[in-house]
Design brief:
Elements lengths: L4 H21 L8 H13 L3 H28 L7 H16 L7 H18 L2 E2 L2 E2 L6 H17 L2 H31 L4 H23 L6
Antiparallel strand pairs: 1-2
């Protein structure tokens, strides 16, 4: 279930919403697209604007630590039967993002750190969609893979390549749609907009339970 297209839908919507939330509401920081933060950090260092440099360095550091945390969870819980290790990652994300909804604008650095940490755990834990490598928190890799598959389809007429290309462009659209939702609802819900991301991730968390139940009682469906 963790690699299903349905799971990718909720993760991508959440990823786009998180990025829009931190950029629009939390001081123009990218929660997911760390390349942008590196550019802005480098510019701030060149200008010797240390407070702004810190503003962009913290989410970068948090992202790196989030990847390490997801790997630690995988190694520690991958053999557990009751709960999948990826569900532990999702639950950790939900708790972090829920806490962000209580942080005032004066604590934007901490809020961005939490969101970047959460995004990193997600991108590290969920790296495949229906057998294809993908990312639910950024678009550049998906754009490259989608265009590559489309080019192969045009050249070979392999319908599997067309299906693959459409899957990638659907995910890109969903990420953009999630970002649009985040940007819109910031004006309605303000700081608590991030809780919409918690709802999307919670759906993913329970989806994995449903899939396991179907597998355990597959004889009922035969």
């Amino acid at each position: 279930m963790s690699e299903s297209f349905l799971m990718a839908v909720f993760l991508s919507l959440s990823g786009g919403l998180q990025d829009a939330y931190t950029y629009v509401y939390r001081g123009k920081v990218f929660a997911n697209a760390q390349t942008g933060n590196i550019v802005l950090l480098s510019q701030s260092i060149y200008e010797k604007n240390w407070p702004i440099a810190l503003h962009y360095f913290v989410p970068l550091l948090s992202f790196v630590l989030g990847v390490a945390a997801a790997e630690w969870i995988r190694q520690s819980f991958r053999n557990r039967q009751a709960v999948h290790w990826r569900q532990i990652v999702l639950l950790s994300e939900i708790l972090l993002l829920f806490a962000v909804g209580y942080l005032p604008e004066g604590l934007n650095i901490l809020a961005n750190a939490f969101v970047s940490f959460s995004c990193a755990m997600q991108v590290q834990a969920f790296r495949k969609m229906t057998g294809y490598a993908f990312s639910s928190t950024m678009c550049i890799g998906n754009m490259r893979s989608g265009m590559e598959a489309l080019s192969l389809y045009i050249r070979t007429h392999d319908r599997e390549m067309l299906k693959k290309a459409l899957r990638y462009w659907e995910i890109i659209f969903l990420f953009g749609f999630g970002a649009g939702l985040g940007g819109h609802f910031v004006s309605v819900f303000g700081v608590k907009t991030i809780w919409l991301s918690c709802v999307l991730l919670l759906v993913g968390f329970f989806l994995m339970f449903i899939k396991e139940e179907i597998e355990e009682h597959s004889e009922i469906h035969q």
